[in-house]
């Protein structure tokens, strides 16, 4: 039986950061174009249409005012000076000053409006990105580095912010000014203007050539930022390990390797920009030379007034300003395009675990789980389970034991549908997991695993994570059932105690009991305990065992334990080796059988009489 998992593949583009860009998608990600970036930004921005219209009106007004000033100059030179019109000088001065004040005011309004539109667009984009990331599968997070993903949501979105808030408005203003002035100049003197415009194809060509290189350099910069961020994330969370291995200088060296890559990539970008700007300036000077020489020649032949030449040169500056700006904006645009590409790689990644159309919401479960001929492999790796069958009886405790890597945790992940098997069916109360909604399935499953995840916040908030709308009394009851209320109440702030990042301020056993309280509060029908009692001392273990007994009562439980002492009461124990069940029975039955289980048991309890 094939399914959507089979059709999906991993996109591993070559090149970037030692092949570390790994995006699982159903289809190969296309590089996002600058055009699609603008379309997307516009789609978000148009929701702010009143501000957008106001900003556009301001821009048009700015362009018109910029147009008026050279006309005043021309009028002064050609009419007022020759006719000695002293009386009009005051008006001209007032006109220029008035235009300057209006220009300042209009620019202030348009900049503020655009900045706020930009911020709103980014607010939406960042939230969309985060929401989409949350909807992606566990396998996506297996493939991609946390630091890299963090950098996409923070750094790459911030780069876009710079472009939307300032550069886009500038681009629009410049485009409008350029078109209006070019048309006017063609009208004044088309020969001179055409000569002038002859330099433009070279500018466009230069911009294209440099643009491509800049974008690829920016991509390298952003990947190196992601690499730095990933290293930071790993080394800061693993600081205790680093210290215990006295690996501080080794880590510092590895960090400086990454920052060096970032520095080199930035230097490359600066070099490109440093080469690009003078070329554009040189082409601008060619334009100026053309106007001067050809304009002066026309004036000497009385075919043009001096005022027109002066105005022409002023317009030339206005015409060249957009180009000069553009040479700077292109930098921001290319940088943004590289950032946008990285953002879109995430947004275009499709979840592989999807609800089929018409998926039904599971009713309250009894909790009978069955694997029928299930085969599963992580991505392209070898099969972890091959034609595997297993039944978990409703309301009973089923234990899985077996050597490391035999596939126990994988079975738990398949029940919660973190992954889909390539073959076979998994059912719960007779419903295939693929026929039901993910929420209705996961809401009824609780997982308590060896990697306890606690969030920075208070003890109360962490327990409440099991059921966000629970009352204080429910939280306290869950903590009591999990044997956690004693230590919680011994803290001066009780349930309001801040537990620090990942619960660093708590002991291993305390964290474990919080995670059990959280699961008790959730009150799921099915419980998966993944080595929940490893690495605890005997006293803590007794507390945990009592808490677990509370948690398991009356539910369907899958217990994965290396420590065979924890599963002696299980209703059924399955011994797993390389994805296959080699024996099953109760603890006593298995010991009597003298098979793999009793071997494992003797290994753990050498002095114990295996037959007891
Ligand atoms: N996310 C993953 N991506 C790729 N391979 C994986 C992944 N998780 C586990 N594996 C591989 O699948 C196999 C089964 O792993 P699993 O975690 O299910 O074993 P386990 O029996 O729970 O082991 P342990 O008792 O050591 O936790 C192992 O070979 C492991 O390397």
Task: Please describe the topology of this protein.
Elements: H1 4-7, E1 9-11, H2 16-19, E2 23-25, H3 34-45, H4 49-80, H5 86-135, H6 138-143, H7 146-188, H8 190-197, H9 200-237, H10 239-244, H11 248-300, H12 306-347, E3 369-376, E4 385-392, E5 397-402, H13 408-415, E6 423-428, E7 431-432, H14 438-442, E8 445-449, H15 459-464, H16 472-481, H17 485-490, H18 508-522, E9 526-530, H19 538-552, E10 556-560, E11 572-577, E12 580-585, H20 587-593, H21 596-604
Parallel strand pairs: 5-10, 5-11, 8-9, 9-10
Antiparallel strand pairs: 1-2, 3-4, 3-6, 6-7, 11-12
Helix pairs in contact: 4-5, 4-7, 4-12, 5-7, 7-8, 7-9, 7-12, 8-11, 9-11, 9-12, 11-12, 16-18, 18-19, 20-21
The structure holds adenosine-5'-triphosphate.
The site of adenosine-5'-triphosphate has 12 residues, from helix 13.
């Amino acid at each position: 039986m094939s399914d959507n998992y089979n059709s999906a593949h991993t996109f591993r583009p070559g090149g970037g950061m030692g092949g570390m860009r790994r995006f699982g998608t159903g289809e190969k990600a296309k590089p996002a174009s600058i055009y699609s970036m603008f379309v997307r930004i516009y789609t978000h921005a148009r929701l702010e249409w009143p501000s957008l219209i106001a900003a556009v009106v301001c821009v048009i007004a700015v362009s018109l005012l910029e147009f008026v000033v050279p006309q005043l100059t021309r009028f002064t030179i050609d009419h007022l000076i020759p006719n000695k019109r002293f009386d009009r000088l005051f008006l001209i001065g007032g006109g220029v000053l008035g235009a300057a004040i209006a220009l300042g005011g209009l620019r202030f309004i348009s900049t503020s409006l655009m900045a706020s539109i930009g911020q709103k667009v980014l607010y939406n984009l960042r939230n969309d990105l985060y929401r989409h990331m949350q909807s992606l599968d566990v396998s996506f997070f297996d493939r991609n580095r946390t630091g890299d993903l963090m950098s996409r949501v923070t750094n790459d979105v911030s780069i876009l912010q710079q472009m939307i808030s300032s550069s886009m408005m500038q681009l629009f203003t410049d485009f409008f000014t350029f078109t209006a002035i070019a048309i006017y100049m063609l009208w004044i003197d088309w020969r001179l203007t055409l000569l002038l415009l002859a330099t433009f194809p070279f500018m466009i060509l230069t911009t294209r050539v440099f643009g491509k290189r800049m974008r690829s350099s920016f991509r390298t910069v952003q990947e190196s930022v992601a690499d730095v961020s990933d290293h930071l994330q790993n080394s800061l969370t693993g600081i205790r390990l680093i210290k215990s291995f006295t690996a501080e200088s080794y880590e510092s060296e590895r960090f400086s390797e990454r920052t060096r890559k970032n520095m080199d990539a930035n230097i490359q970008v600066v070099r490109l920009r440093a080469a690009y700007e003078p070329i554009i300036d040189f082409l601008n000077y060619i334009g100026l030379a053309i106007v001067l020489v050809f304009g002066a020649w026309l004036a000497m032949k009385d075919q043009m007034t001096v005022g027109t030449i002066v105005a022409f040169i002023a317009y030339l500056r206005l015409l060249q300003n957009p180009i000069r700006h553009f040479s700077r904006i292109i930098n921001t645009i290319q940088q943004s395009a590289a950032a946008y590409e990285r953002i879109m790689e995430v947004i275009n990644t499709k979840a592989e675990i999807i609800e089929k159309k018409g998926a039904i919401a599971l009713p309250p479960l009894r909790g009978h789980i069955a694997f029928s001929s299930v085969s599963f492999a992580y991505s392209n790796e070898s099969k972890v389970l091959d034609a595997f069958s297993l039944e978990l009886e409703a309301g009973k405790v089923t234990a899985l034991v077996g050597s490391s890597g035999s596939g126990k945790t994988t079975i738990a992940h398949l029940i919660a549908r973190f992954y889909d098997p390539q073959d076979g069916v998994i059912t719960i109360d007779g419903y295939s997991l693929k026929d039901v909604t993910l929420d209705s399935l996961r809401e009824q499953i609780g997982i308590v695993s060896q990697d306890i995840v606690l969030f920075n916040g208070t003890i109360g908030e962490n327990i409440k994570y099991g059921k966000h709308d629970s009352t204080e009394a429910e939280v306290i009851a869950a903590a009591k059932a999990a044997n956690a209320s004693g230590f919680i109440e011994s803290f001066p702030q009780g349930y309001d105690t801040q537990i620090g990042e990942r619960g660093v301020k708590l002991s291993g056993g305390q964290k474990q009991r919080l995670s059990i309280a959280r699961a008790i509060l959730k009150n799921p029908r099915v419980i998966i305990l993944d080595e929940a009692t490893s690495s605890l001392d005997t006293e803590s273990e007794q507390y945990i065992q009592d808490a677990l007994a509370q948690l398991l009562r009356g539910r369907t439980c899958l217990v994965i334990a290396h420590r065979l002492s924890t599963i002696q009461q299980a209703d059924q124990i399955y011994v797993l080796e390389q994805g296959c069940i080699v024996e099953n029975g109760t603890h006593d039955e298995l010991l009597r059988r003298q098979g793999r289980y009793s071997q494992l048991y003797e290994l753990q309890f050498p002095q114990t009489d295996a037959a007891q």
